[in-house]
């Protein structure tokens, strides 16, 4: 039997997520904070706060896990966080002469804060819908959450990225059940704020190949362990 969608919980979640986003990006509320890494995190905390509030208020049985199908959280942490952080920080070193490790993990935590909401909560709440419908709803809400409604070519491209990101990250989350894995993939775009060049594109392709291969191989072993012949 399909789970009934709790629209009240989704509304509460989204209102909190948008209010937090608006306060962080459209007001001067964060202007007094000198730590740039903290500012980054506060800009993305809304979906996590909204999800946790909705789950608490409506007493939802909404499964969330950092480790997912893996035996412990160390595996997805190493594959989806340590690996991209080391590779991308090394790339930055050869470009600008320093290892921005703190920036790397700030971006990864930012991705986790978003993924708690978009995948951990909203995707779970909408999983009874047809996949395309669920993807479209999440993509539209995620795009609108950024509070940038100008009808420009770059915004249309951004919506396309959001839509395919919703599909791709959603596949990772449904395959692994791990918020760490979803956050790692989510963060790929945020790592390269100054645009994509040959080196960055190569890193993204390499990481995606490694991650897709790892998911396929691990899932085969996981299914064999759960359902032995």
UniProtKB/TrEMBL annotation:
<feature type="transmembrane region" description="Helical">
    <location>
        <begin position="7"/>
        <end position="24"/>
    </location>
</feature>
<keyword id="KW-0812">Transmembrane</keyword>
<keyword id="KW-0482">Metalloprotease</keyword>
<feature type="domain" description="CAAX prenyl protease 2/Lysostaphin resistance protein A-like">
    <location>
        <begin position="99"/>
        <end position="192"/>
    </location>
</feature>
<feature type="transmembrane region" description="Helical">
    <location>
        <begin position="72"/>
        <end position="93"/>
    </location>
</feature>
<dbReference type="GO" id="GO:0004175">
    <property type="term" value="F:endopeptidase activity"/>
</dbReference>
<keyword id="KW-0378">Hydrolase</keyword>
<dbReference type="InterPro" id="IPR042150">
    <property type="entry name" value="MmRce1-like"/>
</dbReference>
<keyword id="KW-0645">Protease</keyword>
<keyword id="KW-0472">Membrane</keyword>
<protein>
    <submittedName>
        <fullName>CPBP family intramembrane metalloprotease</fullName>
    </submittedName>
</protein>
<dbReference type="GO" id="GO:0008237">
    <property type="term" value="F:metallopeptidase activity"/>
</dbReference>
<dbReference type="GO" id="GO:0080120">
    <property type="term" value="P:CAAX-box protein maturation"/>
</dbReference>
<feature type="transmembrane region" description="Helical">
    <location>
        <begin position="201"/>
        <end position="218"/>
    </location>
</feature>
<feature type="transmembrane region" description="Helical">
    <location>
        <begin position="153"/>
        <end position="170"/>
    </location>
</feature>
<dbReference type="InterPro" id="IPR003675">
    <property type="entry name" value="Rce1/LyrA-like_dom"/>
</dbReference>
<keyword id="KW-1133">Transmembrane helix</keyword>
<feature type="transmembrane region" description="Helical">
    <location>
        <begin position="36"/>
        <end position="60"/>
    </location>
</feature>
<dbReference type="Pfam" id="PF02517">
    <property type="entry name" value="Rce1-like"/>
</dbReference>
<feature type="transmembrane region" description="Helical">
    <location>
        <begin position="129"/>
        <end position="147"/>
    </location>
</feature>
<feature type="transmembrane region" description="Helical">
    <location>
        <begin position="99"/>
        <end position="117"/>
    </location>
</feature>
């Amino acid at each position: 039997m399909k789970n009934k969608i709790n629209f009240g919980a989704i509304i509460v979640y989204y209102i909190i997520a948008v209010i937090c986003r608006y306060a962080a990006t459209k007001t001067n509320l964060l202007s007094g904070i000198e730590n740039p890494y903290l500012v980054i995190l506060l800009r993305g905390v809304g979906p996590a706060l909204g999800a946790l509030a909705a789950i608490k208020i409506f007493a939802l049985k909404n499964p969330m896990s950092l480790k997912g199908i893996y035996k412990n959280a160390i595996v997805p942490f190493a594959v989806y966080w340590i690996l991209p952080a080391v590779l991308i920080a090394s790339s930055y070193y050869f470009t600008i002469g320093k290892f921005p490790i703190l920036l790397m993990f700030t971006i990864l935590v930012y991705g986790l804060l978003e993924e708690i909401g978009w995948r951990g909560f909203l995707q779970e709440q909408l999983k009874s819908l047809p996949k395309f419908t669920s993807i479209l709803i999440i993509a539209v809400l995620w795009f609108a959450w950024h509070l940038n409604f100008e009808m420009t070519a770059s915004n249309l491209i951004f919506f396309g990225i959001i839509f395919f990101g919703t599909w791709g990250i959603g596949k990772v989350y449904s395959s692994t059940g791990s918020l760490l894995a979803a956050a790692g993939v989510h963060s790929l775009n945020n790592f390269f704020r100054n645009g994509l060049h040959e080196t960055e594109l190569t890193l993204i392709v390499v990481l995606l190949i490694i991650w897709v291969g790892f998911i396929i191989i691990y899932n085969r072993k996981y299914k064999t362990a759960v359902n032995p012949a």
